[in-house]
Amino acid sequence: MIRLFICPKCGWVRTVSRKSNVECFKCEDVRMIPSKLEYAKFVEMSEQERRDYVDSWMYIHKNNKDAVV
């Protein structure tokens, strides 16, 4: 199963199939957080919809520091 992870610092999205501890390649030593969005839905989105999703995810997680691991 392919899962999406989002960096809580920069918003970069990474897809992985086996790992559960994922680090952001852009922000060294930052643990990425799994997204609840399914991979199949993510790939069906347009580029703008993906940006909007990440922007809203970042907004929610920056306002709720308890959600960031």
Overview of this structure, please?
The longest helix is centred in the C-terminal third of the chain and has 17 residues, at 47-63. This protein has 69 residues and is of the alpha+beta class. It has a three-stranded antiparallel sheet, with no helix packed on it. The chain has helices at 39-44, 47-63; strands spanning 3-6, 13-16, 33-34.
In short, what is this structure?
The protein is of the alpha+beta class. It has helices spanning 39-44, 47-63, and strands at residues 3-6, 13-16, 33-34. Helix content is 33%, strand content 14%.
Strand proportion, as a percent range, falls in 5-15%
> What helical percentage do the residues reach?
25-40%
**Low-pLDDT residue spans:** none
Number of helices: 2
Tell me about the biggest sheet? 3 strands, antiparallel
Q: Could you give the order of the helices and strands?
A: EEEHH
Radius of gyration: 12 Å
Topology:
Blueprint: E1 3-6, E2 13-16, E3 33-34, H1 39-44, H2 47-63
Antiparallel strand pairs: 1-2, 1-3
Which descriptors apply to this entry?
69 residues; alpha+beta; globular
